[in-house]
Write a structure and sequence with these properties.
Strand content: 15-25%
Distance between the termini: 67 Å
Pfam families: MSS51_C, zf-MYND
Structural class: alpha+beta
Number of helices: 17
Region (Disordered): 245-269
Shape: globular
GO molecular function: zinc ion binding
Protein name: MYND-type domain-containing protein
Keywords: Metal-binding, Zinc, Zinc-finger
């Protein structure tokens, strides 16, 4: 009898909860939402599953209220944010999910010490993760019909809007399409930023089990799924704790622009000192006469702060010749520097002196990092002496600081869609002190292009087919094959990729060789110019050139003419905005128009470099653009 009652109570607890929450799902169905499409339903469930994997309930309780702002007020009906206050429920028992409120005052009125208080005429947007066995038949049917992604092992999000009437009962309705767009952007953003919350030990009594966090505000760019993009693929989402943390919106902001942050994630003081030291002692080069001058003795333009000079005479001469026409452009680039900086990491992210940067991390002249400075420049690309073992490849980093060479089993067999570094680090349980993003920028940029930017290759991979990719101009990445193996794991059991790396940087003794770096990714190496070798290669589905520097090599012109005649989608990255502007001119001279506009690459290296004679922000794979897309 006791066992029977125990099982009965467990069943009751599963179905109705025991802590804050308004009870199980209401039976609403997303298929009844006017204007919704099956692809967007799939995107919603993927975003919900990605949030579930980050497990915010491990630290967050209903008392932790968050403010959220998606885009601009004018983007939404009534020119105001639909549900700008959010709380997570289930961290201390009961229903697992999150509630969204019309205001912080509504959230406070409904949040009791041990349960959710039913306040008449207050609407709550609910996302609850329910066990599949307890879901309504209509929701089960949607899950099976569209093969929606599971959250964890056996839960799926149930989405509705609840309102308490004057008698204490609950009324439910389906959310609108606009409200679903809002919650989608929130889920993408909160997955990235909630791990950045820092516990405030001084504000939390020792006897309390509830954490308190330092005031926090962070803005990230969330990518709309293709079926929901309206004019821009990205939208700026600002999350604050507690609600109401101030930010100001720039006068020139757009729907996807980033508000100015007033609070930055904390960083280790030693790392900050190291970064400042690198910048101050580095040698600069006069942009006019190319004379080298100590960083502290160089002059910079007072207007743009972007270019360096050895003397006032060179500065005046340069202004007369060219800088007077470029100063405004450079000033705009410098003002966007904060938006480009990847602020989540807690290792030093400035490498004007690469050897010293690598030494500070303990990885100088080790493994794949040997291509990050000039110490091994005498060794041809692809021919660095290598030891067996992933630990050696990653330069002896601790075992938890680099991705293991093992499959990922996440939900259904389908490529894992990623939108940025924090999502990837969470997926791989990597600490934000690990510098592996600097090397992984190349393979993950490649993966991002294949699964997010190129619709044709994404569909091929989803259908389990092979994608042939022509990779132009490889150099240092020829020694990074262990990092490229990560692409195979992210495919998550679906599709195959053949990467053909072709360029003059491939040594002749490696040309014609094939490397099966994983069971789903193989790499063929071809030495020579692309326009001369393309006729002998398998026809590509997509062409990629990373850190391409189109304006630096005359041989690119013939290759671009060939790409135009082939009509194959081609994507390029470059390190700075000025390089991208020059690249666009080269493309136009070859008769190609940029159809994928220049945007910051979410998988750019977080490590900033300065040019020898300018301070313009420069990141490996910093910007993405495409043609024939």
């Amino acid at each position: 009898m006791d066992m029977h009652l125990k099982n009965l109570f467990a069943r009751f607890h599963e179905q109705f909860g025991s802590g804050p929450g308004l009870g199980p799902g209401s039976g609403t169905c997303l298929l009844k939402v006017e204007g919704i499409s099956p692809p967007f339903i799939k995107s919603l469930y993927r975003a919900a599953a990605a949030l579930y994997r980050t497990n915010p309930w491990r630290r967050l309780c209903p008392v932790h209220l968050f403010g959220v702002r998606v885009g601009k007020d004018s983007d939404w009906s009534g020119k105001k944010q639909p549900f700008p206050c959010i709380q997570f429920i289930g961290g201390d028992g009961g229903d697992l999910g999150f509630y969204m409120f019309r205001s912080a005052n509504d959230a406070k009125r409904m949040t009791g010490s041990r349960e959710t208080i039913r306040v008449p005429n207050v609407e709550v947007f609910r996302v609850t993760y329910e066990l599949e066995s307890l879901m309504f038949p209509s929701n089960k049917k949607v899950v099976k019909s569209f093969a929606l992604e599971v959250s964890g092992t056996d839960r799926f999000p149930v989405i509705d809007v609840a309102r308490c009437n004057s008698s204490g009962g609950l009324q439910f309705r389906n959310p609108s399409l606009e409200e679903l767009r809002f919650v989608y952007a929130f889920m993408r953003a909160i997955s990235l930023v909630h791990p950045l919350l820092q516990q405030d030990d001084d504000a939390c009594p020792k006897w309390s089990r509830v954490m308190k966090f330092e005031p926090f505000i962070e803005t990230v760019d969330a990518q709309w799924p293709p079926e929901m993009a309206k004019g821009s693929d990205l939208v700026a989402v600002t999350v604050s704790h507690p609600p109401g943390q101030g930010f100001q919106e720039k006068a020139s902001s757009t729907a996807s622009s980033t508000p100015t942050k007033h609070t930055d994630p904390p960083r280790d003081e030693n790392f900050m000192d190291l970064q400042l030291n690198y910048y101050s002692v580095g040698l600069r080069q006069c942009v006019m006469c190319e004379r080298e001058v100590h960083g502290q003795q160089s002059l910079t333009c007072d207007q743009c702060r972007a270019v360096s000079y050895c003397s006032a005479l060179c500065q005046k001469q340069h202004w007369k010749e060219t800088h007077n026409t470029l100063c405004g452009l450079y000033k705009g680039m410098m003002e966007r520097e904060e938006e480009l900086e990847v602020k989540i990491f807690i290792f030093p992210c400035s490498a004007d002196l690469p050897c010293k940067w690598l030494e500070a991390l303990g990885i100088h002249q080790k493994g794949m990092w040997r291509r990050k400075c000039s110490c091994f420049s005498h060794c041809p690309f692809g021919l660095l002496p290598a030891k067996d073992g992933l630990w050696d490849s990653w330069g002896g980093l601790d075992d938890d600081e680099y991705p293991v060479d093992s499959p990922l089993t996440v939900g259904f067999l389908s490529p894992i869609l990623l939108s940025g570094w924090l999502e990837y680090y969470n997926l791989r349980s990597l600490p934000l002190s690990s510098p592996v993003s600097d090397v992984l920028s190349h393979p993950l940029t490649l993966y991002y292009i294949l699964t997010s930017l190129s619709i044709s290759t994404k569909n091929r991979l989803l259908n389990g087919k092979e994608v042939v990719l022509h990779y132009l101009g490889p150099e240092g990445e020829l020694d990074w094959m262990p990092a490229f193996a990560e692409i195979g794991h992210l495919l998550n059991g679906t599709g195959n990729i053949q990467i053909v790396m072709v360029g003059p940087g491939v040594p002749m003794n490696l040309s014609g060789t094939t490397s099966g770096i994983s069971n789903r990714v193989r790499v063929n190496l071809v030495s020579g110019l692309y326009q001369e070798e393309a006729a002998y290669l398998s026809s590509p589905h997509v062409i990629v050139g990373l850190n391409c520097r189109l304006e630096n090599y005359a041989s690119w012109v013939d290759a671009l003419h060939l790409i135009k005649s082939m009509g194959v989608p081609a994507f390029f990255t470059d390190q700075s905005e000025i390089s991208c502007a020059n690249a666009k001119q080269v493309l136009q001279s070859a008769g190609l128009n940029v159809t994928q506009p220049v945007t910051p690459n979410p998988f750019r290296s977080p490590v900033r470099n300065h040019g020898p004679c300018n301070n313009l922000p420069s990141y490996s794979n910093g910007f993405l653009f495409g043609v024939n897309t």
